[in-house]
From TrEMBL:
The keyword Transcription regulation applies. Keywords: DNA-binding, Transcription, Transcription regulation. Residues 1-58 form the HTH lysR-type domain. Signal peptide: none annotated. This is LysR family transcriptional regulator. InterPro entries: LTTR, LysR_HTH_N, LysR_subst-bd, WH-like_DNA-bd_sf, WH_DNA-bd_sf. GO terms for molecular function: DNA binding; DNA-binding transcription factor activity.
């Protein structure tokens, strides 16, 4: 059985779509479809059933998946042996919530591609949890530890959040010294029904029952705060990227959250992905410490 055919099969099994699999493989959907048909003919088995939701693996297809994954792991291991312990190459796709993706991962990716010129880094910023079993990413950053699934989970670092506003907005309003002083202020936060993780539900910390301006994106919230639209709870590590934004009530409203690194469990056998995971985790720890240090010292 040809490994390249198995590679196409595995992409469709994970994406449950010819077009999504094709985009990941760099092929058009019709080519992917022909490759699957060829494999099915060679095996004398139907591997996928077309449904309104996409392509679902049949029992025969599901039975083939672990063998295809074993072949994939062997191919990756062979590449690692040939590449040796020098520079890392190939593609690395990292999925992350947009706060991490916007304010931390660009610096980390810049260092990675500087140290490893043969490496292509893709940052997928989405305000939701990634499905690693479908290989939406090689690794993902999460804001809470998953309670189910087969993913390999590693705590990266704690980070802090505080209530903040732009200086122009704060100067136009009376001083904020107590929680009671927040009454009448416009609040900025998440769209309630689009909060994908309970760890992101910050509004109750302020005593407010509604946000006058809301978004599912951390960076949009920060832009609104910087535009003087109101107050919001923001990551300390994002404040150095928003000139004029200042923390308020730091002694009363202070949150600590954590970043977790998630990887498919089977990838723990890959030296290449382990080295990349270690580099990403170390980079996040370094950047959180550096940026929060700038805020603490007022630099």
């Amino acid at each position: 059985m040809d490994w390249d055919d198995l590679r196409v099969f595995l992409a469709v099994a994970r994406a449950e779509s010819l077009s999504r699999a094709g985009r990941r493989l760099g092929m058009d959907a019709s080519t992917v479809g022909r490759r699957i048909a060829r494999l099915e003919t060679a095996l004398g088995r139907v591997l996928f059933a077309k449904t309104p939701q996409g392509y679902a693996a049949t029992p025969e297809g599901a039975a083939l998946i672990p063998h295809a994954e074993a072949a994939e792991a062997a191919a990756l291991a062979a590449n690692e042996v040939l590449a040796g312990q020098g520079g890392l190459t190939g593609q690395l796709r990292i999925g992350a919530p947009d706060g991490c993706a916007n304010y931390l991962l660009p610096q980390i990716a810049a260092r990675l591609i500087e140290d490893h010129p043969g490496l292509d880094v893709q940052i997928v910023a989405l305000p939701r949890v990634f499905n690693l079993s479908r290989r939406e990413a090689d690794m993902a950053i999460a804001v809470s530890r998953p309670q189910t699934g087969r993913a390999s989970v590693q705590k990266i670092a704690d980070y802090r959040l505080h209530l903040a506003g732009h200086g122009d907005y704060l100067d136009r309003h009376p001083p904020i010294r107590t929680l009671a002083d927040l009454q009448g202020h416009r609040m900025i936060g998440y769209i309630p029904d689009m909060i994908f993780d309970p760890e992101l539900d910050y509004l109750a910390e302020t005593g407010a029952d509604r946000a006058a301006l809301s978004s599912n994106s951390v960076s949009v919230q920060m832009q609104a705060i910087q535009a003087g639209a109101g107050l919001g709870i923001v990551h300390d590590f994002a404040i150095p990227f928003a000139p004029g934004v200042r923390r308020v009530l730091t002694d009363r409203i202070s949150l600590t959250r954590s970043f977790w690194l998630l990887r498919p469990a089977e990838d723990r056998r890959s030296d290449r992905l382990t080295r990349l995971a270690e580099a990403v985790a170390a980079g996040i720890r370094r950047e959180v410490q550096r940026l929060e240090g700038l805020v603490a010292t007022g630099t």
